[in-house]
Amino acid sequence: MTGQIVDTSSHRERDAKAQAIAKAKAIAPDVAARIGSTPKTTFRGDPDIFGRLVEDHDRHRALLAMIEETQGDSEDRRALFAELTYELKAHAAAEEQALWSTVLRDPETTDFARHAISEHKEIEDMLEDLAARDMASPGWLRCFAGLKEEYLHHIREEEQEQFVAAEKRLSASDAQHMRQVFERRKKAEKADAEIEKKIKLKD
Ligand SMILES: [Fe+2]
Ligand SMILES: [Fe+2]
């Protein structure tokens, strides 16, 4: 349980977050999405690439919270985990193409892009590992908790460090254009995304 948090966010930020949660809820309307407070970011609700990426991050926060509410090898857990896998893979691939590929070429921000991209690989390995495990086993949720922690760390760091550094080096029109590239790429990536299964981690 999180404690009482004073909400000082604007309407625009709150609406953006509520819409992102609603998209996750559409997958399993009866499962609660308790995402609690989110780390502060100035990008939430922004009309450029960074606002669009944070919208996805909030959707992912909701999916992660919802999976934790599910039990065993249930229909809801299967549907939510499949959606999480497609979402995370498509988001990471489109984010790399729309944003990190450009940020990587700027010597000032190369390291920020490298860091984000290397974490994508770790997260993909964790997804494949979880997909290969029995959802009904008591250990599944424990492994899932590891993925959740890793992913929440990744998106918090993007929002608070890597996006901040990248934004300073990009023009407003770059950031606008990148949003369109991201939208297009994500749609295509999600249509092609698959669930791969491979045990990668030690128990
Ligand atoms: Fe990322
Ligand atoms: Fe991201």
From TrEMBL:
Gene3D superfamilies per the UniProt record, alphabetical: nmb1532 protein domain like
Record's keyword annotation contains Coiled coil: yes
Residue stretches making up the Hemerythrin-like domain: 52-163
Residue ranges that the Swiss-Prot or TrEMBL entry lists as coiled coil: 113-176
Keyword Calcium: no
InterPro entries: Hemerythrin-like (IPR012312)
UniProt keyword list: Coiled coil
Pfam families registered for this protein in UniProt: Hemerythrin
Name of the protein described by the UniProt record: Hemerythrin domain-containing protein
